[in-house]
């Protein structure tokens, strides 16, 4: 949920951009953004450390080419642009698509507000993230593939 909507209920097109960014991170990583696991903060740490390819779902990472991992890194960067706290800092969807297609270079995102450091030690934070990932894998039964067939009424 976009911070502006959570704080005052304001709805805008930029709220949809925020949601798109979260969805893009979930697709790349195969993880869900939940209360007990902040996917945005995790993605920021991985991206800031220059390890965006580590965020790619392990079920497919091994079969990816260098080009595909580069595309995934672009997706992470664009997603982080989409989840900026201030709606004016988020790119319009008309700019997001060319960035994803690598026709336009994405800007450098700022640290999202949900990544504000807490008082916990870095080792404790890393352990908490690892525990959340393990719990996510346990809940979802690992990295299983599901296929949904949609049919009109």
Automatic annotation (TrEMBL):
SUPFAM superfamilies in the record: Protein kinase-like (PK-like)
InterPro entries in the record: Kinase-like_dom_sf, Ser-Thr/Tyr_kinase_cat_dom
GO molecular function annotations of the record: protein kinase activity
Residues in Serine-threonine/tyrosine-protein kinase catalytic domain copies: 1-98
Coiled coil: none
Record-given protein name: Receptor-like serine/threonine-protein kinase SD1-8
């Amino acid at each position: 949920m976009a911070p502006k909507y959570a704080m005052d209920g304001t709805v805008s097109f930029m709220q949809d951009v925020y949601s798109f960014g979260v969805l893009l991170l979930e697709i790349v990583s195969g993880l869900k953004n939940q209360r007990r696991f902040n996917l945005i903060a995790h993605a920021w740490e991985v991206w800031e450390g220059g390890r965006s390819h580590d965020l790619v779902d392990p079920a497919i990472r091994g079969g990816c080419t260098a080009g595909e991992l580069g595309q995934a890194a672009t997706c992470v960067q664009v997603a982080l642009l989409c989840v900026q706290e201030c709606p004016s800092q988020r790119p319009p969807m008309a700019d997001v698509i060319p960035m994803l297609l690598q026709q336009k270079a994405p800007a450098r995102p700022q640290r999202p507000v949900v990544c504000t450091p807490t008082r916990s030690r870095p080792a404790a934070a890393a352990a908490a993230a690892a525990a959340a990932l393990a719990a996510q894998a346990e809940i979802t039964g690992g990295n299983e593939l599901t296929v949904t067939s949609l049919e009109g009424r």
